[in-house]
Structure formats: structure tokens, C-alpha cells
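User: Quick sanity check before I run a bigger batch. Here is a single chain. Can you write out its predicted 3D structure?
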Amino acid sequence: MDYILKDIEPKRVFRHFEEITRIPHSSTNEAALSRAILEKAASKGLKAQRDEANNVYVFKEATPGYENRKRVILQAHIDMVAVKEKDCQVDLDREALPIYIEGDWLKSKGTSLGADDGIGAAMMLALMESDDIPHPPLEFIFTTMEEIGLIGARSVTADMLQGEYLINLDGGSDMASLAQSCAGSSENRFYFPGDTYPLGERENKTALSFAIDSLNGGHSGGRASDFVANAIILLGALLSCLQKLSPFELAEISGGGKMNAIADEARAVIVVPAENAAAVRNAAEEWGSLAKEQVRVTDPDMRLVVDDAPLPEFCYNQKGAGELIGLLEVLPNNAFDFFNSAKQIAKASSNAGILKAEGGKLVLICKLRSNSDHLHDRYISRFERLAKAFDAEFETLNRYGAWEYDPEGALLKLYVKLVKEEYGVDPLPVLTHGGLEPGVLIAAAKAGGKKLSAIAFGAKGEEYHTTRERLYIPSVGRVFDWLCRVLISLD
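Assistant: Done. Predicted structure follows.
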């Protein structure tokens, strides 16, 4: 087999990465790559197993002289976000990625590269197969379906976590930029009666539509402390304002599209007494002007379009619609707890991501994030009280725990000492409000009475999850050499 990357150092890492690019491995399609990893482990006589989520666990004993060190868990995910340009003919479910080198960068022609986190997995494979790199006892965990909700990591149980230290290789910057915390999250659903009734007295009524759009939106974790506008929340505020002016019946309401994306559009249709229509329209347009002024810094292109609408055949249960609007007016949204007094680094937040009618209900779905499990509990409790106050059904789904910031963590303190010795500075702390797998694995260990101390770092890449994805080649050797040094420096 000829290798495009055969002359790039570190050769053993890039050989494994190139082999990974030749096996399709988008999220939920990792079985073939899982099998290949098991085969590599078997060829070296290493103990290995695979679980129902296609996660692979490999155990390697220490090299001579390091037998008494603590076992270290190395972890990376093996799935990728597989996207391609419209005119690209590559079948991402069956064919190899068309990788190529451009200067100091590794890319894939017309497709994403999968360096997130194929390069972390490749470093693990290089260590797994090595006969000449000294190391303590190691456990390698190759997880799946990270890109669609950390699903593989959420299948890992405490009995499969055999080490005390965890090094995640999905850091994505370099060894001096260190992830030290990530948010746990949960899906929180409010349900209101969504049954409908036929619209009566049609000759005396007028329908108006309201569309809020052209907001910036963005990732609900990454932009939580930017306080960008949320179209669902704005729509609730508008309807609450109009309730005070005129009675109305709600015919349509919707907003957002993804739970973890800040809603950049929302829409409603209401029916008002005909004699109030002009006043309602004028009030809505005035409200829109004021709202636009309030969000001019974060969302300068915000629009509220008010228009006439055809009279609907049916409208929603008035009590349920009214309670939904009331909840939207007081619901916590964006960041509301922080790591610093400048309120730049979010610690807890919520995002009203989806508003829709479904299964005879009006449903509001919020993504709650918290870098503290204690705060997470408190805000779920607050949501439960709000649901009760507004007569809504409520449930919390798909919760996973945080990787809590612990400046006294054993592994973190050892790592900071190494970085200071090497670079003369403290590593740049990264307290992300997104989800990372260490948080899930730490929670799994805790549930089994174990404690994991974790850090995360990795090679430098850019524009992940796009066809412009690229891996900075010089960073790979530096990070791999650094990883090897870290492993022999731990107690």
C-alpha cells in the first residue's frame, strides 16, 4: 500500500492517520474502523474489546521501569463530520478521503478531513503499536458518535475506566492551550395543550402574521455569553405585549430548528377582532422598532415583518397558548452564571432552541448547559417550578454531567508544572461551555465510585466540520512528542 504521507514526521502517526482516512467513519458508520482497531490490537497481542456502541478499549502494560506508575487513559473519538462540496463525487460512505498536502497543511479535496479527531486516534494507535516508546500502563478508549451528542462516551461504564488519569486528545489547539472544564447539558421540554377548535365569527375577525428573522444565531454554548438575540424569546415578548392591547387567538407559532443553535427566526399568526387590527399592527411595528434598537449591537439586521394573513380554519387551545406566551416572557435564556465578574465565560446557560406544534401539544425545547452539576440541578429545579406555575408538563431528557473546573486536580497540577518547565508560562486555560467527552467519562467514573483527573490537548486544526478543514502538519509532531514526555513524567 503506497502512502501519500509516508515521508511526513512523525511517520508512525501519519501512517495511522492515512489509514483512518481510507476507512469511511462518519458518525454511526464507525463499525469498520472499530474492527480495524481491534485487529491492530490483536496483532500486538494486546487485550481489547468492543462494546455495543462500537467503542473500542485496548489495554497495554507498562514498559520496563514504569510498571509502578498510575495507569493513564488516552481517549479520542473516531467518528467524523463527513461533508462534501456539491460537485464532489466522493462517496463518503464507501470511499477513501482524497487527502493532499498544501504547504504546511493537510487537506482533503472537496470533503472534510476528519482530523477532528482522527489525528488524536492516530497518536493513540502509534503509541499502542510502538515497541520503543516508554510509557506507564495505558488504556486506550476510542469512542464513537461524538459529533452527534457524545453518544459513544455516554455508553462507557465505570468498570471500563481502569485508570486514574485521563488525557483527551481532542483539544484542537496545542499543548499550551489546555481544556480544563466543559459543560454538561440536558434537553428540557415544556408541553402545553395544543388541541384546536374551529374559528368562529369569522366575518368580524382579522388574521395577522409576525415573522422575526435575520438574527445572527450561532452555537448556544459558544455564544451563550455574547447575549445575542433569540427569536423565540423575542416572539414571546411581542405576543405578551400584544396580549395587553387586545384579546387574540393563536393560530400558528414556531421558531428555531436545532436545540443547540440560538433561534434566528420565529413566526406566529394570531386572530384579532377586526376593529382592533390596525391598533395591533401599529403596536407590533412600534415594538419591533424598539426591539431592534435594543439588539443593535449583537443583531443589527434583526427584522420584524408584520403582514395580513388568511383567516385560519382552527386556532389553538387558548389557555395553553396563553400559558406558553407567559412562560416565554420570564424564561431564563442565554448565560446566567459565569466564571468571572466580567461575565465573559459562561458557567450556566439555557437556549430556547425549538418551538413547535407536535402530537397535539405546543412544545418548547430548551438546551440547558452548566459547567457545574450543582448549578445544573438548580436550574432544572427552576424550570420545574416555572412549568408548574404555567401549568405545563415538563421533562428532562438526555442529561450528561459536566467536567467541573478543578484547579487542584492531580493531573492538571502535574501538567501545569511540565508546561512551566518547558515554556516558562502557565498553559492557557480553556473553560468551554460546549460539551467534551471528559465530562461524560468523569461522570461515569463518579457513578461507579471512581475519580478521574483529566486534561485535554491536541494538534492544531482549522475549520472543522467543513470542506475547508485542514490540519497544521508541524503541530502533530510537537504534540505527539509532548504526549510521550507527559506520559513518562506522571507519577
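The chain has two domains: 11-182+403-489, 185-400.

User: Great, the batch can go ahead then.
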